[in-house]
Design a protein that fits this description.
Number of strands: 13
Protein name: Aminotransferase class I/II-fold pyridoxal phosphate-dependent enzyme
Order of helices and strands: HEHHEHEHEEHEHEHEEHHHEEHEEH
CATH superfamily of the largest domain: Type I PLP-dependent aspartate aminotransferase-like (Major domain)
Number of domains: 2
CATH topology of the largest domain: Aspartate Aminotransferase, domain 2
Bound molecules: pyridoxal-5'-phosphate
InterPro entries: AspAT_Ic (IPR024551), PyrdxlP-dep_Trfase (IPR015424), PyrdxlP-dep_Trfase_major (IPR015421), PyrdxlP-dep_Trfase_small (IPR015422)
Helix content: 40-55%
Number of helices: 13
Keywords: Aminotransferase, Transferase
CATH class of the largest domain: Alpha Beta
Largest sheet: 8 strands, mixed
Pfam families: Asp_aminotransf
Organism: Blautia segnis
Shape: globular
Structural class: alpha/beta
Strand content: 5-15%
Radius of gyration: 23 Å
Distance between the termini: 21 Å
Length: 426
């Protein structure tokens, strides 16, 4: 098929007529499908159901140091959970704090703590005239919501397949001491599925920030979430790189088992230098008497070790892989060569990032909704919900069944075609 951008007015009009007809037919089916949030499907949740049976009324509920997990005590995580999440985060257990059920909650808390208490003895951010964050875009909407909530000014930094534009990051961070952090999803990024290159990680570790309390918010939410056994991305471990570069306190690494076990009922962790972790602990001991140790115990007894985690993630991959491939095949087959969109082809994670012709994303999302398919709101992948080009759409293939996903993908490509033709017709 000819590129849409090379069609003349009459050709476009004829095409629009055809597509309008197709759209009315699809609309008449009364679909109700959702490709908006990166949630595991029910089949994926079922993979962890045996975890519900590892702790019983007559189980030994003491952790390996003999602490009774039914009672108060051990504020920053039982040793075996630190070991498990330490292996997942590629750091020693002494560099880990185990939190509650959500890493996003820990990120929110880290910013709240920096606002009211300051970072390692520095002036609390709430006492400063201005606090800024760098936001690689497109990125994770909930990161941007946190910084927006605290009135932190967000600066867009373009993403590349190698990671954020590091020339820009280095320049801004070294010149402006109001810049206190950067949001990063370094592996199988949300929404592109990109993994930061070795050079990007090394440049991050060697940053020379103007602000002593600048931290890299390294949200490694998809660290073990591969789709393939033989085609996996590799991310250099950043905490060790920071130590090597003489910058041991530069990074907070966040992780959780949300998309390993049960989202909202997993365990979250932070990995960082001892000095940073002491800062976290000073706040934490006022905030709580401790997190859910029974859930920590349950996770360790179920997964056992890193190999157990990997074996479990392969089962997730078996469910997710056909879904990603279905969406990618549909995009290739229906939109390939038409010049009206580009998309990423991730090897892991939860998302595919789609870029339409400029000025079309909102209209595509609205059109899909009209046909009964909910997509992530256009603009959500940018700070303040403002995509300057109105072109990025995040596709989340995980939750629908394969059958529903097939229908949703067809609706999506039809909406892309229709909106693009309308745009080209002016
Ligand atoms: C990049 C990223 N970080 C964090 C989260 C949420 O993690 P948690 O459930 O641990 O709060 C998500 C969920 O979609 C995510 O995509």
């Amino acid at each position: 098929m000819k590129k849409y951008t090379e069609m003349n007015h009459d050709e476009l009009l004829a095409l629009k007529k055809e597509l309008d007809k197709e759209f009315e037919e699809i609309k008449a089916q009364g679909l109700a499908l959702d490709m908006s949030r990166g949630k595991p499907s029910n089949a994926q949740l079922d993979l962890s159901m045996e975890m519900m049976d590892v702790l019983k009324g007559d189980s030994n509920l003491k952790c390996e140091t003999g602490v009774d997990c039914r009672n108060y005590g051990v504020i920053d995580g039982i040793p075996e959970a630190k070991r498990l999440l330490g292996e997942m985060s590629e750091v020693d257990p002494e560099h880990i704090i185990i939190y509650g059920n959500s890493s996003l909650n820990v990120m929110f808390d880290s910013i709240a703590r920096s606002m009211t208490q300051g970072v390692m003895g520095n002036t609390p951010w709430c006492k400063l005239d201005k606090v800024k964050f760098l936001c690689p875009v497109p990125g994770y909407d909930r990161h941007f919501k946190i910084t927006e909530f605290f009135g932190i000014e967000m600066i867009n930094v373009p993403m590349t397949p190698e990671g954020p534009d590091m020339d820009m990051v280095e320049k801004l961070v070294s010149e402006d001491d109001a810049i206190k952090g950067i949001w990063c999803v370094p592996k199988y990024s949300n929404p592109q599925g990109y993994t930061y290159s070795k050079e990007t990680v090394e440049r991050f570790a060697r940053l020379k920030p103007a602000a002593p309390d600048f931290r890299i918010y390294w949200d490694n939410a998809y660290s073990i979430h591969h789709l393939y056994d033989d085609n996996q991305d590799f991310l250099v471990e950043i905490l060790g790189e920071c130590v090597k570069a003489g910058n041991p306190d530069l990074v907070y690494k966040f992780t959780s088992t949300s998309k390993v076990s049960f989202p909202g009922s997993g365990i979250a962790a932070v990995a960082a230098s001892k000095a940073n972790l002491d800062d976290f602990r000073n706040y934490m001991q006022i905030q709580t008497i401790g997190h859910d140790k029974l859930n920590q115990l349950r996770h360790v007894r179920f997964f056992k070790d890193l190999e157990g985690l990997h074996a479990h993630m392969r089962k997730h991959a078996d469910i997710l892989r056909p879904k990603f491939e279905l969406v990618l095949d549909t995009l290739d087959k229906e939109l390939g060569g038409l010049g009206i969109g580009e998309w990423t082809k991730p090897h892991g994670g939860y998302f595919i990032s789609f870029d339409s012709l400029d000025g079309c994303a909102k209209a595509i999302v609205a059109k899909a909704k009209e046909a009964g398919v909910v997509l992530t709101g256009a603009g959500a992948t940018y700070p303040y919900g403002k995509d300057p080009k109105d072109s990025n759409i995040r596709i989340a293939p995980s939750f629908p069944t394969l059958e529903d996903l097939g229908k949703a993908a067809q609706v999506f490509v039809l909406c892309v075609k229709l909106v693009s033709v309308e745009k080209l017709l002016g």
